[in-house]
Design goal:
CATH class: Alpha Beta
Distance between the termini: 54 Å
Order of helices and strands: HHEHEHEEHEHEHEHHE
Structural class: alpha/beta
Strand content: 15-25%
Helix content: 40-55%
Oligomer: single chain
Number of strands: 8
Radius of gyration: 18 Å
CATH topology: Rossmann fold
Number of helices: 9
Length: 241
């Protein structure tokens, strides 16, 4: 295999996974219920990745119009293929999730709002929401009295905080919380099992940047295994005050 750049290596590692982070269809269904998202809603999947949640959104709201956006072209192409069966009802585009117009009845953002910042992202999206619209997002969350292993897992995300800290960021943006749910345990295990299988398939021929990317992914999995009951996302459904 010829040498590739670190960015290309990263995308190679995460290509062909069912999803690019932990989550379950039940999390999407829960958020739609709490938000009261109508059958004919207009929905945005912000930071859609390869479209796993876009598919769930389309299945859960079969009359909805869904827009999905991501900055990484390779993931956008994967999401387009995955959602092709929904035809014109689902549109996937390459772009900046900070620059969206709406109006949307729901903005769904799984594990990607940290790129903008919780407060900053919610402020940006306020004008993109239809009257009565909501944002559902998941964010890294420290549980009570986190161990050294749990803190080590989030060491590359110094902004990580606990549930109270996330709620404070939501309030600072001028939103109120309609519901919250922890994403922990099974969702993470399923994600890392899939990633481990991908690493095993790539490892025999890996060298250079790809080998380094595989090493980094394995280290992440090892850090999760050191504290699996403490690593969580907080999934929140919020609405402007």
């Amino acid at each position: 295999m010829s040498e590739i750049t670190p960015d290309e290596a990263f995308l190679t590692v995460y290509a062909d996974l069912a999803r690019e982070g932990p989550g379950m269809p039940a999390d999407v269904a829960w958020a739609l219920y709490v938000a009261g998202t109508p059958a004919t809603a207009r929905i945005l999947d912000a930071g859609c990745g390869s479209g796993a949640d876009t598919v769930t959104l389309a299945k859960e709201r079969p009359q909805a119009q869904i827009e999905a956006v991501d900055q990484i072209g390779q993931l956008v192409e994967a999401a387009r293929k995955r959602t092709a069966l929904f035809a014109a009802r689902v549109q996937v585009r390459e772009g900046d999730m900070a620059q969206v117009a709406g109006p949307y009845d729901l903005i769904w953002c799984a594990g990607a709002l940290y790129f903008l910042g919780v407060t900053e992202g919610l402020r940006r999206w306020r004008d993109a929401l239809a009257p009565g619209g909501c944002v559902a997002f998941s964010e890294a969350c420290l549980l009570a009295n986190p161990s050294a292993n749990a803190r080590a897992f989030w060491s590359q995300y110094p902004q990580v905080t606990n549930a109270a800290g996330i709620r404070a960021r939501v309030a600072e943006a001028g939103y109120r919380c309609l519901g919250e749910r922890m994403v922990i345990g099974a969702a993470w295990e399923a994600y890392y099992t899939s990633l481990s299988d991908r690493i095993a398939r790539l490892r025999p021929a890996a060298h250079g940047s790809l080998r380094d990317a595989l090493d980094e992914a394995e280290q992440e999995i090892a850090r999760w295994k050191a504290a699996p009951s403490e690593i969580a996302y907080l999934l929140m459904v919020v609405a402007p005050e």
